[in-house]
Amino acid sequence: SYYRLKQPSPAEKNLEEAFAIADQLSSQPQMFNDVSQIYLKTASMYSSGGDMKKAKECLQKALALKTGFRDLISNVDLALIQFKIDSSEGKYLSAIQRYQRYEQLNDSGFNLKKTREIDEMNIQFGVAQKEKDLQLLQNKGQLQRAELSREKLTRNIIIIASSLILLLFVLVYN
C-alpha cells in the first residue's frame, strides 16, 4: 500500500474516497459488517504506519457500528489494533490484556485452520479409501464373473463329454 511505502499522499486521497463511501453505506444496516471491515482494515494500516491518532479514529468508527457479529479474523485485527493504540498511549496494563486477547484469538484461528486442514485430509483419505474399496469390489465382481464363466464352461464340457460317452455306449450296445 502507499502508506507502507511511505507515500501517504496518494493513500490519504484513496482513503478519503473510501471513507466517503463507507459513511454513505453506514446508514444501511445490511452494510454494517462491510463498512466495519473498511474501518478496521484502515485502522490496521494506520497503526502499522505509526499514525495512532487516525488508527484510533477508524477503530472508534468501526466499533460504533453495531455489526452483531464479527468473524474471528476481524476480532484478531481488532485486538491487535487496540493493543497498538493502548501501547502508544502508555496504557500498558490495558495493552497487555489486549495483546493476550490477540494471542488467544490468533491461537484459536490457528487451531481452526489446522482443524479444517485435518478435516480436509480426513475427507480426502475417506474418498481415496472409498475409491480403493470400489475398485476392490469391481475387481471382485470381475473375478466372480470369470469364475462363473469357467464353471459354465466346465459344466458344458462335462455335459458334452457325458453325451458323447452315452452316445458311444448306445452305438456299441446296438
Overview of this structure, please?
Helix content is 85%, strand content 0%. It has helices spanning 8-25, 32-49, 52-64, 72-88, 92-173. Helix 2 packs antiparallel against helix 3 (52-64), helix 2 runs parallel beside helix 4 (72-88) and helix 3 crosses helix 4 (72-88). It is rod-shaped. The termini are far apart.
What is this entry, summarized?
This protein has 174 residues and is mainly alpha-helical.
Q: Determine the mean pLDDT.
A: 79
What distance separates the N and C termini? Answer: 110 Å
DSSP, total strands: 0
Number of helices: 5
Percent helix = over 70%
Structural class: mainly alpha
Low-confidence stretches: none
How can the largest sheet be summarized? Answer: none
The global form is: rod-shaped
Strand content: under 5%
Q: What's the alpha carbon Rg, rounded to whole Å?
A: 37 Å
Oligomer: single chain
SSE pattern: HHHHH
Q: Which key features would you list for this structure?
A:
mainly alpha, 85% helix, 174 residues, 5 helices, rod-shaped
Which helices and strands occur, and which strands form pairs?
Layout: H1 8-25, H2 32-49, H3 52-64, H4 72-88, H5 92-173
Helix pairs in contact: 1-2, 2-3, 2-4, 3-4, 4-5
